[in-house]
Design goal:
There is one protein chain. This protein is mainly alpha-helical. It is built from ten helices and no strands.
């Protein structure tokens, strides 16, 4: 490991990029919670984050995406390769749970406080839900590709696209469950109960 690489293998440049993205989200959420969505502009978010509006668009497509913390996300290489190879347990539903937890961790970014603020903003500005779901849809292809690779070694019981949709449904349901619980524990703790409930519904 070099001096410019962290213990998790992330380079200095990537850490700086992540830190800037988090600063933009922090500024956007702070301003929106204080003033409301319509009263905040991209220019004001950029100024609060100490960047130019042009730099803002290097990180987020729109004000709404910044407010929701919806930039690009990347599942860890170990998670991706392990799942595609048929692991980590070899049982699809168990491996899907691991994948959903990794997805939620990637989305959480700065942690539980960020997730709480995002849910609060979604409740205050329900029109953002459409943007939220559209973002999930855009990133579904990354997860679909993992199922397609896994199918080569362990045949899937359904089309890869359907399997990927299940991942995002479970992730969303876990977030809702965590919100209903009053943000008890980590959002990932709600994945297994959601999968159990989903199984009960499908086999009822």
């Amino acid at each position: 490991m070099t001096a410019s690489t962290s213990p998790d293998g992330v380079g200095l440049r990537e850490r700086k990029k992540r830190a800037r993205a988090e600063a933009i989200v922090d500024a956007a959420q702070r301003l929106v919670l204080d003033r409301g969505l319509d009263a905040v502009t991209v220019e004001e978010i950029a100024e609060a984050a100490g960047i130019s509006p042009r730099t803002f668009f290097n990180y987020f497509e729109s004000k709404d995406d910044a407010v929701l913390g919806q930039g690009a996300f990347e599942l860890g290489a170990e998670v991706r390769e392990g799942f595609a190879a048929g692991g980590p347990t070899g049982r699809l539903i168990s491996d899907v749970e691991v994948l959903v937890r990794a997805l939620l961790a990637a989305l959480a970014g700065a942690g539980q406080h960020r997730a709480e603020q995002t849910l609060e903003i979604l409740q205050l500005e329900p029109r953002l839900l459409g943007r939220h779901f559209a973002w999930f849809e855009r990133h579904k292809s990354q997860v679909t590709a993992l199922f397609e690779r896994r199918h080569e070694t362990r045949p899937l019981p359904a089309h890869a696209d359907v399997c990927a949709m299940v991942v995002f449904v479970v992730a969303r349901a876990a977030m809702d469950s965590w919100d209903r619980s009053g943000h008890t524990g980590d959002v990932g703790d709600h994945v297994s109960p959601v999968v159990e409930q989903l199984g009960a519904v499908l086999t009822a």
